[in-house]
From TrEMBL:
This is GntR family transcriptional regulator. One of its GO terms (biological process) is negative regulation of DNA-templated transcription. GO terms for molecular function: DNA binding; DNA-binding transcription factor activity. It comes from the Bacteria. The keyword Ribonucleoprotein does not apply. Residues 12-79 form the HTH gntR-type domain. Keywords: DNA-binding, Transcription, Transcription regulation.
């Protein structure tokens, strides 16, 4: 690594300033997959304590710029993967041509008050929920809960196994013609269950995308997908409008297609 880049007094936290300095070094001196010098060397170069350095490295790992490998060290992470989230590229849930889904489970239960509101049905009405993981280039980028009112699939056949139930729900959905959808995206953190599916620590930053699907003038599905914010970026494509609306301290992105 080249210049020393010693830190001077700054009004922001020292680890955050170091993060910025490290980012400049990463962008100018390293390429994807390269291993960073060890903590002793980095601490000496930037004139900071190891505790401060670890804070900065932890932050960059959280942001997806670095990845730690046991027995190897800290590596420069690959760029984020673009994940299409418009129906023109995705099709119905689970039918994307260039993506892959791995089903986790499928359950049938009465709708909670919150879920009933999102689906526009009565509280306690029967809802099928398919949980799955979205894969891009073999990597898990999102976990999703797809909720479908039983009334939207009146001809759903019986099933002997959970996997059969999931396939049946998705197959029946594919036969419905979508005539409208609404998407919203907001910042969030991964809960324990989602974090395990995404192979991330609980509390890791995520993008939560909620999509309502309509067919024949009524809501027939509600998908809540939790995307890793460190390894992927959502691409909405040219079709559809994008509206950014402040929501408290966060921002919400709504699309219409």
């Amino acid at each position: 690594m080249g210049t020393t880049g010693q830190l001077s007094a700054v009004p922001e936290p020292k680890y955050w300033h170091l993060r910025t300095v490290l980012l400049r070094a990463i962008d100018s001196e390293f390429s994807t997959g390269q291993v960073l010098p060890n903590e002793r060397e980095l601490s000496a170069r930037f004139g900071v304590a190891r505790a401060t350095l670890r804070q900065a490295l932890d932050q960059l790992e959280l942001e997806g710029r670095l990845v730690r490998r046991r027995g190897i060290g800290t590596l420069i992470a690959a760029p984020r993967v673009g994940v299409p989230v418009n129906r023109q590229e995705e099709g119905w849930p689970g039918t994307a041509r260039n993506q892959a889904w791995r089903t986790v489970d499928c359950t049938t239960a009465p709708a909670s008050a919150q879920l009933a509101k999102g689906l526009g049905i009565a509280e306690g009405a029967t809802v099928h929920t398919v949980r799955r993981v979205r894969l891009v280039e073999g990597r898990a980028v999102a976990s999703e809960s797809l909720h479908v009112p039983a009334a939207a699939l009146p001809h759903l056949p019986g099933f002997r196994a959970e996997s059969d139930r999931a396939r049946s729900v998705l197959r029946q959905l594919e036969r419905l013609e979508v005539d409208g959808e609404s998407r919203s995206v907001e910042l969030g953190v991964a809960e324990a269950e989602q974090a395990a599916l995404l192979e991330r620590p609980p509390g890791a930053p995520v993008l939560v995308m909620t999509t309502q699907y309509a067919s024949a003038g009524r809501l027939v599905a509600l998908a809540v997908a939790t995307y890793r914010a460190d390894t992927c970026k959502l691409t909405f494509g040219e079709a559809g409008l994008v509206e950014v609306t402040p929501v408290g301290a966060t921002a919400e992105v709504r699309t219409a297609s």
